[in-house]
Amino acid sequence: xxxxxxxxxxxxxxxxxxxxxxxxxxxxxxxxxxxxxxxxxxxxxxxxxxxxxxxxxxxxxxxxxxxxxxxxxxxxxxxxxxxxxxxxxxxxxxxxxxxxxxxxxxxxxxxxxxxxxxxxxxxxxxxxxxxxxxxxxxxxxxxxxxxxxxxxxxxxxxxxxxxxxxxxxxxxxxxxxxxxxxxxxxxxxxxxxxxxxxxxxxxxxxxx
Length: 208
Description:
Elements (H helix, E strand, L loop, with lengths): L1 H19 L4 H4 L1 H20 L4 H6 L8 H20 L12 H8 L5 H12 L1 H29 L3 H6 L8 H8 L4 H24 L1
Helix pairs in contact: 3-7, 5-6, 5-11, 6-8, 6-11, 7-8, 7-11, 8-10
């Protein structure tokens, strides 16, 4: 929770700095965003490479549970489609100016707000990138706050799917506390797979 609030604070600080008109030209350049993106991907790779138990944790999973990331991805997309249909009709026209692929691109961040928002900003503009940032931060915060309730109501796999790409790091402690140690390997595996798909799926929906 603290980390998410810090990210939101830096986002607000960035908005205020941009509105001030005092930022140097190199900060506003798309090259700067690309360099930041490359650095972020490097850190993700280092984090995965430093985990000595990743290989053994993945081997311990049953084939059936190994499909959980696929269920998370498909379920998230179905939710985005349902939201788009509900909010872009004649009764509710909030999303009339947005396409279904916009919603699917945002949803494909799977709570990985930093990486997905950079990609979406590059492809679809700052407005949609900001929406992606907030939507994915909210997804992470919902998991952090409601994981015990989600697990009690929908079962032990539900908070793992809710956490998306964050289940191998920021939401792992609360998920472990909510569903038990037996799901630690599954949470790490789930986070690793969904984390890995984010750049490809977000780019796919942004370029369609």
